[in-house]
Amino acid sequence: MPDELADLNKCMSLFNITTAQRKRHFLSQIAHESGGLRWLKELASGDDYEGRADLGNSQRGDGRRFKGAGAIQLTGRHNYQAFSNHIKDPLVMQGCDYVAEKYPFTSAGYWWYLNSMNALCDRSDVNVEMVTRRVNGGINGLDDRISYYQKACEAIA
Q: For residue 22, which of 109, 102, 142 has the smallest C-alpha distance?
């Protein structure tokens, strides 16, 4: 757990998730997406991603190797490579196990950064549903995300 906490703190600093509102939304979304931080690797085998050109999975075994990892699951050779380049760690290309163990939150923060989530969280009219739609593409798990957000509001003044 100390390594995960260090990664969380590094992530929040690196991706400027520093205001109370940004922290609340980030933490509530990753809490839901990871099943309360129980799953930092995709539960499925990754076989469904094999050969997916849209994910950059061009080599045999890429589906399993680059299946979802982290609190907001980084998926696919292309996304792993972009993350690897961004944080300057070529070992990211080892795949899912490495990312889930070493960068469970930094990988999520990278997605947060790429999708301009801080700007969304800074809006005066932002709510959990708006953030959820950007993270999830819909409102899957909205009640759970709202519950986590309320807890985050209690903990982060």
A: 109
Gap between the Cα atoms of 92 and 96, Å rounded: 8
Question: Residue 4 contacts by C-beta under 8 Å, 6 or more apart in sequence?
Answer: 104, 105
pTM higher than the cut 0.85: yes
Which pLDDT value is given to residue 157? 86
CA 56 – CA 145 distance, rounded (Å): 30
What are the residue ranges in the chain where pLDDT is below 50? none
CB neighbour class for 49 (10 Å; exposed up to 12, middle 13-18, buried from 19): buried
Tokens 């593409």 belong to which residue? 137
Considering only CA atoms, which of 93, 90, 91 is closest in space to residue 77?
A: 93
Contact 69, 41 (CB under 8 A): yes
Backbone angles phi, psi at 11, to 5 degrees: -60, -50
pLDDT digits (tens, 9 = 90+) for 21-57: 999 999 999 999 999 999 999 999 999 999 999 999 9
CA 101 to chain centre: 13
